[in-house]
Predict the structure.
Amino acid sequence: MSNITLFISYFYFIFFSVFGSGIFFCRIVKISIIKVSFGIVGIIGIFFLTFISYLTNFFFSHNFIHNLIILIPCLLFISYQFLKFKTFLKKKFINCFLISLLFIIGLFLSKNNEDFGYYHFAYISNLTESKIQFGLANFNSGFGTQSSIFYFSSLLYLPFVNYFLVNSHSLLILIFANFFFLDNFFFKRRNYHNFIKILSLFSFVFVNLFFWRIAEYGTDRAGQIVVFIIIIIFLSNLIKKSYSDDNIKILLILVCYVLSFKSYFLIYIFLVPLIYKNYSNSLNIFFQQNLNLLILLSVFLFSYFAVNIANTGCIVYPLSFTCFYSFFWSVSSDAVIALNKWFELWSKAGATPNFTVDNPGEYLQNFNWVFNWINKYFFTKMSDTLAGLILIIIVFLFLFRSNHSKKKKIIF
């Protein structure tokens, strides 16, 4: 019983420290927490702690002392800020805390991701034992695909609980995202657009039906949840045909953050020009007024790519055209090309943990892989998700169209 109490106490130590970090960063970049969901503040807090983790690992290992020095001031800051909160801010904060109580059981029921033993834990453990090292991908190819999740998780290596809470990152993202969705649906003002309210509720249902297994998160699911939030904020402002400075800042932070989860999230960088295109004020004025935010985001991305280069010699591993093979620690070109082909083979159902096709080269040519991919991927993982998605859409259409019709009749 005492171990469970200690475990939960440490989780909420992390939970409140993340909030303190988020509010502190919002103060730095002048984001009004009065207008922002506390779910967003929590995710910004994770981003800021991740940013600190990247910077400090260039000089220090993330041992107990380092992590407590980072987290305790954040806890003290949120404690001080809570006393200054207005009544409605305290209610928002307490509501988010109450939602966390519904998910705390996930700490006990979920197991580790299948890649945790392969390289996730090894990477996190290395961060807690030493500062930045060069050429790690030569020893374990998994070290070439670093994620910002590992850097945040390394801060959760704490006395008594040791490594047992390093996977709570996924649960924190799930809690903050759920509060954001519910906040949009239940607590927004009456003139908040109905489409965004319904989309937020839809996202809440989808995430909790399909992303409820924390063990499946790895470095993918948490990033996908953040993408849900980005799309909702983006569409919300697109409907209003204007972007406030706060929303621009939040979108830029979330886009930069999601880019650091995994290499394939780089496709979401296309949102940046779309955000600017729909920004109603002068970009020059925005740059001048928010130079500190732009510098911080630039340093964050520079740190992320610098770690990639330190691990592999590549800016984006394993894209060979981004690699510098002249560094003495660089992964060889043959190894980069081989891993690139392996990832392609895996994504096209030519390889699993227990199976590899006989002729990978021939299998990947033209569209030879399509039939096998449909059998092994589409009619298992993808078809189940699509069926569930269609069912949710049908239920939502039935519920909200019928309510909309009744409202029309009453008005008539």
Residues 370-411 form the longest helix (42 residues). The beta strands are 351-352, 355-356.
